[in-house]
Structure prediction request, 101 residues.
Amino acid sequence: MSDAPSDAPAITTTQLTSLLTTSLPSLSHISIQDISGGCGTSFTATLVSPAFAKKTTLARHRLVNGMLREEMSRIHAWTVKCYTPEEWEGRKEREGEEGER
Prediction:
């Protein structure tokens, strides 16, 4: 059972973006989408920061989830992809090549 009050206002992508950019100022890219139809309970995010270098995927997720500790109690589903700038550039290049086919 959640400790969050049932009448708590919905979380927005703007709130999450603000919290993450404040907590992790080295973010060079942030994209957060509300996939819950606007009720603020399900989100998917892509984050790019040099702070993720030399960290495992689990360590990256723990870092981000720790920054959103209070909000996480009100979020039903949270999917986050964390990349270093180098990984992000490589991913964009690969997607560009696949799109040209």
User: Anything to note?
Assistant: DSSP finds four helices and three strands in the chain. The mean pLDDT is 89. The helical segments are 13-23, 57-67, 69-72, 85-99. The CA atoms of residues 48 and 85 lie 6 Å apart.
